[in-house]
């Protein structure tokens, strides 16, 4: 039986080790604030995305995406002498067109990957050998054609995964922005149709000296008053107007009692403005008009 028993001291030690292992210390030197006007353009000097607090990482990505990759055009790029090479080699600016993701650091005279910088997963880049394109920088110009192609890799490479994340991020933001813009424009058009119809009905009732409100303006009422009955009549004869009222929210249909009062008050103010404009600076009394 003793072989199936575990000493109490051993159990306590295991629990202590497990509890210590489960405690994860936060990453050191995490940046909790970010100002988009203070982003570092040189890829050899900037912080990595994972060095920022998780709640501001998306803000950092957005700021760098708006600026785009750092691709300076220099008259002469620094040249490097390689062993057993009679001539020196340097970064080639034509790579900007061939590799849209490439960046150049003037500080380190090295190439970087813009998309891997934005979307690489911390810890995985070292495993796949891509740390050089995000931190230390690539500067083996002698084997650049092979090295840059090797960084891109195959379909399931780390670089292509970052490229996909970059495209998805941009498409998502553009689609959301487009939907909001389209919804805003559409709601404005529907609002304008409702406002025009309600105002036209108000002007007609005011011109005829007719009352607006009804005794019972509920949906089930047989006579909801002159204003609402007239609006319903316009809706029944104009599909566009009917659609605008049906799709309007309950607090923006432009038919409630307070809105009717606002229409009447606004029309009265406009009429008063026209009358006062016609009178101008004239002084008048009952039955007599004196012009000054």
Summarize this entry quickly.
This protein has 292 residues and is mainly alpha-helical. The protein has 10 helices and 6 strands, in the order ααββαββαααααααββ.
Written overview of the protein:
- With 292 residues, this protein is mainly alpha-helical.
- Helix content is 49%, strand content 6%.
- The chain is built from ten helices and six strands.
- It has a two-stranded antiparallel sheet. A two-stranded antiparallel ribbon has the order 3-4.
- A hairpin with a 4-residue loop joins β3 (102-105) and β4 (110-113).
- α7 crosses α9 (239-246).
The proportion of residues forming helix, as a percent range, comes to: 40-55%
The biggest beta sheet is recorded as:
2 strands, antiparallel
Overall 3D form: elongated
The DSSP helix count reads 10
Mean of residue pLDDT values? 80
Task: List the strand order in the largest sheet.
Answer: 1-2
Structural class: mainly alpha
Q: Give the end-to-end Cα distance, rounded to a whole number of Å.
A: 124 Å
Following the backbone from N to C, one meets helices and strands in this order, namely: HHEEHEEHHHHHHHEE
Radius of gyration: 36 Å
List unreliable stretches of 5+ residues.
9-26
E-strand count: 6
The fraction of residues in strands falls at 5-15%
